[in-house]
Amino acid sequence: MTDTESLIFETNSAEETIAAAERFAGSLDPGDTVLYTGEMGAGKTHFTKGIAKHFGYPDTVTSPTFAIVNEYNCDPPVFHFDLFRIGDLDELYATGFFDYLDRGGIICVEWSENIPELANELEHVRTVDIAKTGENSRRITVRKVK
After folding, report:
1. Cα–Cα distance between 41 and 32 in angstroms, integer?
2. Which one of 47, 91, 93, 120 has the fewest beta carbons within 10 angstroms of its own beta carbon?
3. In sequence order, what are the residues at sequence separation of 6 or more whose Cβ sits closer than 8 angstroms to the Cβ of residue 119?
4. pLDDT tens-digit series, residues 71-124
């Protein structure tokens, strides 16, 4: 994926969303951050399931809504954040989010739109916007920001 390229996936089920994420994950390197946008129930956690699966995580992937972060022990590790309850950059710093940048994993961030300036604080960023196009169908747009 080049700096100016976008990938678009059209999916019709949770399984297809997971499979699309597995294909996308092949373009990720340790230290990359994936910032998700999309309404509640769009499929952000399913997309993270596909990323973790690509890197060999065999167990259940769940939304870290109350925990703020779930760690998936794979190679590289996947750190799955949910910023739904985080209101600004200062609160995010308090969670220890930025400590994860030095751990050599892939960081997946749900509700990144809650902190629009977050991408400016990071080095290797991809955005994933998941839009509902029907009850089970999704349009997933992936962009490399930097």
Report:
1. 24
2. 120
3. 35, 112, 125, 127, 145, 146
4. 999 999 999 999 999 989 999 999 999 999 999 999 999 999 999 999 999 999
In degrees, to the nearest 5, what angle opens at C-alpha 137 toward C-alphas 134 and 143? 115
**Strand intervals (E) in the chain:** 6-11, 33-37, 69-72, 78-82, 106-110, 125-132, 138-144
132 and 39 in contact (C-beta within 8 Å)? yes
Query: Hey, what are 127's tokens?
Result: 């955005």
d(CA 137, CA 66): 27
Which CATH number does the domain 6-144 belong to among 3.80.10.10, 3.40.640.10, 3.30.70.1170, 3.40.50.300?
3.40.50.300
